[in-house]
Design goal:
Elements lengths: L1 E3 L1 H6 L13 E5 L11 E6 L7 H9 L3 H7 L10 E5 L8 E8 L6 H17 L4 E5 L13 H16 L18 E5 L3 H29 L7 H15 L2 E5 L1 H6 L3 H7 L7 E8 L8 E12 L19 H16 L4 E11 L11 E3 L5 E3 L7 H14 L4 E6 L3 H7 L4 E5 L2 H14 L3 E3 L17 E2 L7 H10 L6 E6 L5 E2 L9 E2 L4 H14 L11
Parallel strand pairs: 2-7, 3-5, 3-6, 6-7, 10-11, 10-14, 13-17, 14-18, 15-16
Antiparallel strand pairs: 1-2, 4-5, 8-9, 9-11, 12-13, 15-18, 19-20
Helix pairs in contact: 4-5, 5-6, 6-10, 7-10, 9-11, 10-15, 11-14, 13-15
């Protein structure tokens, strides 16, 4: 049983080619672990265990109790992220044994499996080891005592693919002979459990590769990932997954009355794109739908309200929301949940060109509401306003928008979790619950009516910036003016769209958050069926 992504990598275009991690193959074998010939065998240990049992205990016994001795000596503690490599010197078929720490047993969950799998494969790659075998973490003889085998298999695959990710499209180190990690074999003696693990591995590879699609898009420099190239990336996903796609140009959007979006786009020579992807998973029930709305600012200078130069190069990632929506559709197209999903991505640059909008300008959105532009660097909410209007016009009743919207969110929550705001308790909770399954963390912020005072304007229906006070909340309250009664959730990924360092399955650079959660949400909503008519909440 082998799951690999090599065919997809071969079809990738040069401009957005897949990274080397797409060559990773994951094989599931039903066999005795000691019968596997491999450069490295991965076993595990919980913190505080003095004498290992299960597969780790069997390996320990075969090696004369060396793992137990290292525990006694304090060299192996079982701490989360701990890796100890032992050379077997011919005593068993595997050349090495890697003992991976799982941390405390009472804190063990599927997220630990993702993290440990990522740390293990990176550790082995650094050692120049290209293949290894591993037990399925958390799958004991009694399934009720641990993780479901399919969940473990999925987490192992996600962790391995995401943990090995590197973006090296523009490196020219042809003499670099670094060994790539290419094959991971998951070993499980019980054939029924092995079959379940394999199903999980296949899903995990699908999900991880989509997250890598988003990572690649966000890591691309802005001179390559233009709105046009972003539309091409969406077209590729649509073609591969059998999705309907429409790409609207400036003239069409102007005709539709998207004045807020076009106000941002008027400062750049790069043509803007409204990218619309459709998945009809329940065509007989059009009310069973979900709209995913993504901010696609492929470079953000701030416009006339120019950002300071320090760190501006990171603004190539201001399209992470749009990238995550496109990548989520890649998963949805493969997993085929019974729900209709519409993805809308508003893609443009925010540049200070001669025609750029000015502070003090007033723009009119698609629904007729007017916005005074106080700060041209508060552009994300303007493009999203028209994208939300379009989704509502298409009959979408549940909306989730995703955006690197405010620096204030980084100040509030840092990079540990994504800020959530919305008008519907159920949809907010469903989104948070989907994140618990994927290991992506979310935290809800309030949207009290008092905050609306911050975006009141003397000359328009609202203004696009309420200043420094509650900046993330006031931005979300502007978006709320364009959902027209739909259940709506806003995800501000300004902090979580990138990572400053490698940690678990996250690596330095783009994270792919919240691709996996968006796809999980679609699956969960499909399982619960079409929403019952209910009033959205007032906060």
């Amino acid at each position: 049983m082998t799951t690999t992504s090599k065919p997809r990598a071969a079809k990738a275009k040069k401009s957005t080619k897949a990274t080397k991690t797409t060559a990773l193959a994951i094989d599931v074998r039903s066999a005795e672990i000691m019968d596997i010939e491999t450069p490295a065998l991965v076993v595990n240990l919980f913190r505080g265990v003095k004498k290992p049992g299960g597969a780790t205990g069997a390996v320990d016994k075969a090696l004369g109790g060396i793992i137990t001795q290292l525990i006694k000596d304090g060299e192996i503690k079982g701490s989360a992220g701990e890796t100890t490599l032992i050379h077997t010197l011919g005593k068993i078929k595997p050349s090495r044994v890697l003992v991976a720490g799982l941390g405390p047993q009472d804190k063990f969950d599927v997220q630990v499996v993702r993290r440990v799998s990522a740390e293990v494969v990176r550790f082995l790659r650094r050692k120049g080891i290209s293949s290894a075998a591993t037990i399925a973490h958390g799958v004991p003889i009694g399934i009720e005592d641990g993780l479901d085998p399919q969940e473990s298999g999925q987490a192992i695959a996600e962790g391995a693919h995401l943990g090995l990710y590197k973006f090296g499209n523009y490196l020219t180190k042809n003499g670099d002979s670094t060994t790539e990690f290419e094959l991971l074999t998951v070993v499980e003696l019980d054939k029924a459990r092995a079959k379940a693990i394999d199903a999980g591995v296949k899903l995990g590879c699908t999900v991880a590769q989509a997250a890598i699609t988003a990572r690649d898009m966000v890591n691309e420099p802005a001179n390559h990932m233009t709105p046009t190239r972003m539309a091409e990336a969406a077209q590729k996903v649509a073609s591969e997954q059998g999705l309907a796609i429409e790409i609207m140009e400036n003239a069409q959007m102007k005709k539709m009355g998207m004045g807020a979006f076009m106000g941002v786009a008027q400062g750049t020579d790069e043509p803007a794109k409204l990218i619309v992807l459709r998945y009809d998973g329940d065509p007989g029930n059009p009310e069973n739908n979900l709209g995913l709305i993504g901010k696609g600012i492929t470079f953000d200078t701030g416009g006339i309200s120019l950002k300071p130069p320090g760190g501006m190069e990171a603004m190539k990632g201001d399209m992470a929301g749009g990238a995550s929506v496109i990548a989520a559709m890649e998963i949805i197209g493969q997993t085929k949940p019974k729900i209709n999903v519409l993805a809308v991505i508003a893609a443009t640059e925010n540049m200070p060109g001669a025609s750029a909008q000015r502070p003090g300008d007033v723009v009119r959105a698609m629904n007729g509401k007017t916005i005074e532009v106080i700060n041209t660097d508060a552009e994300g909410r303007l493009v999203l306003a028209d994208a939300l209007c379009y989704a509502r016009e298409q009959g979408i009743t549940r909306l989730v928008d995703v955006a690197t919207l405010t620096g204030a969110m980084v100040t509030t929550l840092g990079k540990a979790c994504t800020g959530v705001m919305g008008n519907d308790d159920q949809l907010v909770q469903q989104t948070i619950d989907a994140g618990k399954k994927t290991g992506e963390k979310f935290w809800e912020l309030p949207m009290f009516d008092e905050y609306k005072e911050l975006i009141k304007s003397d000359v328009a229906d609202m203004k696009n910036s309420g200043g420094r006070q509650a900046g993330s909340i006031s931005a979300a309250l502007l978006l709320a003016e364009f959902v027209d009664g739909a259940a709506w959730v806003h995800l501000d990924i300004a902090g979580t769209s990138t990572s400053d360092k490698a940690s678990g399955y996250l690596v330095k650079g783009a994270t792919g958050v919240p691709v996996r959660t968006l796809a999980q949400l679609a699956t969960d909503l499909a399982a619960s069926g079409a929403p019952k008519k209910s009033k959205t909440k007032a906060k």
